[in-house]
Model the fold of this input.
Amino acid sequence: MTLTETQQRANEAVDAIARDLIRISKEIHSHPELAWEEHYAYAQLVPFVKEHGFTVTEHAYGMQTAFRGDWGHGPTTIAICAEYDALPEVGHACGHNLIATTGVGSAVALTKALDPSQARIVILGTPAEEGSGGKIRMIDGGCFDDIDVAMMAHPGPVDIDASPMFGVAHVDVEYHGKAVHASVFPEQGLNALDALVTAYQAIAQLRQHIRRDARIHGIIKHGGDAANVVPEYTKGAFYVRALKPWYLEDLKKRVQACFDAGALATGCTVEVDWHADAEYAPMKNNGPMVEIYRRNAESLGRNFFEMKDLTSGSSDMGNVSQVVPSIHPNFGVGAAKFTHSQEFTAVAATEAAHENMISVAKALAMTGVELALDPDLVARAKADFKGTR
Done:
């Protein structure tokens, strides 16, 4: 069977399971679950991949809502990642219901198109992408030690073949002061809110003088309890992002100085947690894999948006891309709505979104077929990853 014939077989396999994929996507969308709590989504996905011949390790790598499915025994091991956690308040405003079904759909299609001796296909259920780094725990647990290449696709307003995704550090800051009556004994107080506001303003000023490939943003999570009591405890949460790992480290030091300034100015004490075990790395898009994916997607009628002005989010897929050759393309859902909004939540369950999901599952499967059948492509992907192409 030729490469083209095998790819066509994969496309037909996606069509054969399309109704199930749409049903699962709708179920996940209508039952949004936060990071580490994706039990309903897990219960939709695991039986589906078992039904289609994968040997599944449940509750994988010490996480109750993670799984790993293995099929085949060929020389190249191809991993496809599925995400399924939602956001607070706005539900599936990042379309992870579509990521989940794109992932399992393409993985199942590869098992129908290939012989088990041609490749090993691994489908990974990866929880807690929204800020908690489930894939990081999988990396630390050895999940990717036997993986040659990894793929996933993420919905958005348009198709982008190689989005330049930021590395990101998540940081929580807490200030402790001294509470007194704000009118009777103000001079006896240490104002923790003043400390946090001072730090917030210092960070706002810092943002005027950082590189264009970086971002800093944050919120005040707790600012006090009563207006007539000097706040003795406050808490803030911030994200520090950069495309260059060295610059992310530099920005972290400068933001830390802003936190220290708040404490110094007010006499409060400060506690800072940089969550080092959940820091997201920048996305290292693999050139040969991006090229093949784009060609396959375009053959299905997909059109790509060329990014000229840098803007990006972050993902723990960036961490995966630092250990194995990887791609993380974006795909449009049929409407110009932006992720992390209620408008995108609504779009993520539409007929147009599901049509695009099916199309991209085919594009990923076609790319997987080429990786399975072309050892030279895998060699070029690994050379690009090592910087030796």
